[in-house]
Structures are given as structure tokens and as C-alpha cells.
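Researcher: We're teaching a course module on how sequence relates to structure. For the next exercise, students receive a sequence and then see the predicted structure as C-alpha cells, so they can try to spot secondary structure elements on their own. Here is the exercise chain.
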Amino acid sequence: MIIDYCEQEIVEGKMQLHIGLQFEDEPDSLYVAELAVDDDGVVTEWKLFFNGFDCKYTFRPDEKEACIRYAAEQGITIT
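Model: And here is the predicted structure for the students to work with:
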């Protein structure tokens, strides 16, 4: 998984992170992971979108760790 960017925004009073990524087996496809984060920095929901459509994807633990690590490198602490 190649992570491209991380953006943080407040939607309806709740924090969301958008993490742009690519999978090695699909190098020409850009995806967006949307993470809902509570007030304590805990990710409460993980979603993956492609062209605005929910992929109904289940993130593997190593993929979640990579996203959390990347967010930390950008100054955003989540768990």
C-alpha cells in the first residue's frame, strides 16, 4: 500500500481523516480511506472509497497500522 496524502476535516462536529492511497496490485487506481475519529483520537469507522463509491472493504491490521503511522508523521495522532 502506497499512501499519498492525509487530510483532516470536521464534518458535522466530528473529525474525519481522508488518506489517499494506492494498492501495489492496482498502481493506476487511487483510493481514499475515510476514517471517523472520536474526541479521544480513536478511529471508530474505516471506509474505503473509489471514485466516490464505498468499496465495502475490510482493512487488514497491517493496513490500519500503516495509515495510523502515516497520520502520525503528518502530526495527527489516532489509534
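Model: If you want an answer key for the exercise: Residues 10 and 34 are 12 Å apart (CA to CA). The mean pLDDT is 94.
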